[in-house]
């Protein structure tokens, strides 16, 4: 019997919003603005985005782009070729399983998907049966493609810890800027944040 091999895509849902740069040149103000922007980009996702809804959105997008051929590559409309094994609305992170031979189709579909359900003022989705409207702009970013779900989970934990450390560092630099910014303003000693370079998508074949 032939074992069906899969790929696991670690996906992060981002919410980039264009905003004007702060008019003040103060270091403390700029650091606070950078921290707020980081929090907005990594904002939570509505609870209306369920694993079944996300899987259906991916299949619909594959059908829209590649037609019946793409759906056939995923295993058909009624088959479980694409499934969401993990979805966290708090961290906007998902792990998607798909056939190994078709993971690039799923990746392409995620690239073109740009809407998720909106969060109401009360923090809830407000969904009462049926599918919530997809009105909130977003970007689906594939962070890692792995042959095992364990590697995807480890990468998700590592990135979450790194984001916490980064935000804490930005907060500490902002506080120090308020305390010593006045003394060093004329001497060119402004504190600066060293931003990490954008991470490339990592490929891991796992045990295959």
Automatic annotation (TrEMBL):
Low complexity composition bias: residue spans: 19-30
Gene3D superfamilies, sorted: Ribonuclease P, Pop5 subunit
Entry annotated with the keyword Metal-binding: no
Superkingdom: Eukaryota
Keywords assigned by UniProt, alphabetized: tRNA processing
Region Disordered, annotated ranges: 19-42
Entry-linked InterPro entries: Pop5/Rpp14/Rnp2-like, Rnp2-like_sf
PANTHER family associated with the record: RIBONUCLEASE P PROTEIN SUBUNIT P14 (PTHR15441), RIBONUCLEASE P_MRP PROTEIN SUBUNIT POP5 (PTHR15441:SF2)
Family: Belongs to the eukaryotic/archaeal RNase P protein component 2 family.
Protein name from the UniProt record: Rpp14/Pop5 family-domain-containing protein
Source species: Aspergillus lucknowensis
